[in-house]
Amino acid sequence: MEEIAFTMQLKPGNLAEYERRHNEIWPELTEALQAAGIYDYSIYVDSASGTLFAVQKRTPGHTADELPTLPIMQKWWAYMADLMETNPDNSPVVKPLERLFYQA
Predict the structure, then answer these.
(1) Which of 10, 16, 57, 64 has the highest Cβ tally under 10 A?
(2) Is 95 inside any structural domain?
(3) Using a CB cutoff of 8 Å and minimum separation of 24, what contacts does 29-34 make?
(4) Given 3, 17, 22, 68, the catalytic residue
(5) Residue 67 three-state SS
(6) What's this model's pTM, rounded to 2 decimal places?
């Protein structure tokens, strides 16, 4: 199992819409994430700053690095681009985080 964490940034005033869209996540996107080996994915928010904190757990041999090539992923990014900081291809600006502590 691999676990990664990263941050993303919402544009001001978009928290409620971001949450609404994720509450209605497309089944095709959920299927693509699962097929890529992502079996546990949480996103937290610091509502004061709009910083999103995400954690993904991935199976050994996952194919998550191939997700950006999928049309469903590109469609989701375009759908979400008006709410958050994005790269030119509409993918969210992601800042990887390094684990400093772990207690099992």
Answers:
(1) 10
(2) no
(3) 29/72, 29/73, 29/76, 32/67, 32/70, 32/72, 32/73, 33/67
(4) 22
(5) helix
(6) 0.92
Q: Is residue 24 domain-resident?
A: yes
Rounded Cα distance between 17 and 6, Å, is 21
Does residue 73 belong to any structural domain of this protein? yes
Which tens digit of pLDDT belongs to each residue from 24-66? Answer: 999 999 999 999 999 999 999 999 999 999 999 999 999 999 9
Q: How many domains does the chain have?
A: 1
Over residues 74-87, the pLDDT tens digits come to: 999 999 999 999 99
In degrees, rounded to 5, the angle at the alpha carbon of residue 14 between the alpha carbons of residues 9 and 17 is 120
**26 within a domain of the structure (yes/no):** yes
Supply 3's token pair.
């676990």
Residue 62 catalytic?
no
